[in-house]
Amino acid sequence: MTVAPGDRHVTVVSPWYPTQMWPFRGAFVQTMVEATAHGCDSMTVMHCDRWSARVSDAEDRAINQAHLALLPRTKRSSPTVGGATLEYLPVPMPVGGDFAFVANRHAATLRAVFAGTPIDAAVVHVHEALPSGWAVLEHLRPETRLFVTEHASFLEQLLDEPEAREMYDKVLDRCEHLFVVGDGTRDVLLKALPRHAGKVSLVANPISFTEPRPEPVTELRRWLFVGGLIPRKGVTWLLEAFAKCHAEDPSLTLTIVGDGELGTQLHERTAELGLETAVTFMGSVGPEVALQLMREHDLLVHNSRWESFGVTVVEAVAAGMPVLVTRCGGPEETLAGIEDAAGELVAVEEDDAALVEGYRRLRDRFPDGLDLPKAQQVLDERYGYPAVAKMHHRVWFE
Amino acid sequence: MNVLFLALGAGRRRAVTEESAKVVADGGTATVLVAAAKQWKPGDFAPGVTVIDSSVLHRDQLPWRIERLVVYRGPRFVLKRALGRRGKAAVRAYEKKVADRFHRRVFLPVQKKLGGPSRSRLIAQHIKRSARPYEWIVITDSRSMPEAAEALDTLGAGTRIGLVWSADHIS
Predict the structure, then answer these.
(1) Which residue intervals define the domain Glycosyl transferase family in the entry (chain A) (predicted)?
(2) A243 and A356 in a common domain
(3) Is residue A213 part of a domain?
(4) CATH no. for residue A126?
(5) Rounded to whole angstroms, what are the CA distances from A14 to A126, A149, A205, A206?
(6) CB A356 within 8 A of CB A384
(7) Could you tell me the strand order of the sheet in which B162-164 lies?
(8) Nearest CB partner across the interface for B142, out of A20, A63, A75
(9) How confident is the model at residue A182 (pLDDT cuts 50, 70, 90)?
(10) Could A21 and B148 be called an inter-chain contact, meaning their C-beta atoms sit closer than 8 Å?
(11) What per-residue confidence (pLDDT) applies to A329?
(12) pLDDT tens for residues A257-299?
């Protein structure tokens, strides 16, 4: 296929996209594709998925050689959301490489796939300047427009590495525009690369507001946590806070969705607290199941230490549930002006006190002071599919 | 749909178990080839999924059978007899620290030098001799890549078997 000038063919390249292995990872890329694909003539999503393994140098060389030999022999395409086509490309990776190494591995994979031919698209939109932006640089036609969305919660560490920062700088030189999903991410980026300030602006992760909740929330009894079981998500403090609130009201339940390094510790602590019947661990589930769970619970509790956007919080409001959430970067921006209507924001603290106090305040004023329909309307205007699609189509094609 | 999953690295376990379960749920047949069954738990796989320990592929090879007898089965028997209750733990420790290391560092390289069949050749043989021809091979982790590439080379250019990185892309 050769894209004629003026054709609205878009190629999206991302290191994240939901798979059976990681059903949550890259759900925001999938929603972006779903929201924007309909306004394009065609859209191809290239998911360059990191396959990590603890291997020796010799094993790594053998794996790499085999990977490049196998790539042309594999069937990689399948349909995905919005009528787009998904190209799935594993990127074998030894454990422990720095950001520049990872980006170069992604570049080697795309080099093997394109074999010297340019990407056949009027617009290439990458998620993460490193690795994806770096990986596509040598495959762009001069007239192809490059855009970047930066979500990385580890951006500060990435830009601390001199080689990675230099690579990032080159991606910014070539791209027309870089979108970030929160002011925190923008600040980190511009602190390291201030000369690109004119290219950087905010964009929202699109959220669907079309699925109604069968019954409105009538009491804040069924708590829900959705996210990785990792220290950054503050999930250990969440469990402690739940234990204290459960002691005051034994009818409370907590459903924990997600998995991660703290899984075993959380299971053990739940048993120690005698909360086995009140706390349910669901493991990782697909985005559809997570949204369904939001429609079946009463309160999303989100205790992150840091978020660039906090998509789960907006999804919860879209699903008609109040939120109890930390001021961890993204949420205070996404909920600006509707904090009280959507729920309760609390400070990030290294204990459970803020969360317990926040819950008590919210419980005591519920349902007064909350206005979920208003919060939904405001967030739909900010982050609904039509709003986000319109913004993307404008920058891509106008 | 008859699908062979190569999961020799046991690295992306959730992908292997979920995807093989889905193949079976969709009415297909799923066989998962693993390096060692002991790396997996009995409940990991959905009912109907066939799991093959790669050592089974070697069972016709005399050097392999001798190694099994001398390095694994013999010491296992002796340790269990000698240590009674503590035998199981001793066998586990012995196999991890001695037998498996010997197998990887001595047996496999020597066998390769002497021209014995590699695991990839045996995988190719297994694919060729399968009573019901495989239609797809799913490479599920990076450690499976070298052997998948060698097995496909052994099968030759004429093979009609399809190759994917995920069963989600089988059509």
Answers:
(1) 221-361
(2) yes
(3) no
(4) 3.40.50.2000
(5) 6, 10, 14, 16
(6) no
(7) B50-53, B29-34, B2-7, B136-139, B162-164
(8) A63
(9) low
(10) no
(11) 86
(12) 988 889 999 999 999 999 999 999 999 887 778 888 999 999 9
SS3 content of chain A, % helix, strand, coil (to 5): 45, 20, 35
pTM of the entire structure?
Answer: 0.76
CA of A280, closest CA in chain B: separation in Å? Answer: 20
**Alpha carbon distance B7, B10 (integer Å):** 5
Number of domains comprising chain B: 2
B110-134 pLDDT tens trace: 877 777 677 888 899 899 988 889 9
* Residue A171 sits in the same domain as residue A229: no
Q: Kindly state whether residues B124 and B165 are assigned to the same domain.
A: yes
CATH of the domain at B125: 3.40.50.720
- Residues of chain B found within 8 Å of residue A67, distances taken between Cβ atoms: 142, 145
A interface with B, Cβ–Cβ below 8 Å: 19-22, 51-53, 55, 59, 62-63, 65-67, 69-70, 73-78, 88-90, 92-93, 284
Do A53 and B149 lie within an 8 Å CB cutoff? no
Structure tokens at A198: 């004119």
CB atoms within 10 A of CB A102: 21
**Domains in chain A, number:** 2
* Identity of the residue in A22, A88, A93 whose CB atom sits nearest the CB atom of B165: A88
How far, in whole angstroms, is CA A389 from its chain's centroid? 17
Residues B7 and B41 occupy one common structural domain: yes
B19, B99: one domain:
no
A276 and A170 belong to one structural domain: no
> Is A330 domain-assigned?
yes
What is this model's ipTM? 0.78
The residue ranges of DSSP E strands in chain A, in sequence order, are: 9-14, 42-53, 77-79, 85-94, 123-127, 145-150, 177-180, 200-202, 222-226, 253-257, 279-283, 299-302, 323-326, 343-346
Residue A63 and residue B18: Cβ atoms within 8 Å?
no
Distance from CA of B14 to the nearest CA of A (A): 5
Is the residue at A87 inside a domain? yes
Structural domain for A227, as ranges: 222-382
Please state, in angstroms and rounded to a whole number, the distance separating the CA atoms of residues A111 and A272.
Answer: 52
- Domain assignment of residue B109, given as a range: 62-113
Please say whether the beta carbons of A334 and A358 come within 8 A: no
How far apart are alpha carbons A192 and A196 in whole angstroms? Answer: 10
The answer to whether residues A184 and A156 touch, using CB atoms and an 8 Å cutoff, is no
Q: From CA A26, how far away is CA B111, in angstroms rounded?
A: 44
Q: State how beta strands A222-226 and A253-257 pair.
A: parallel
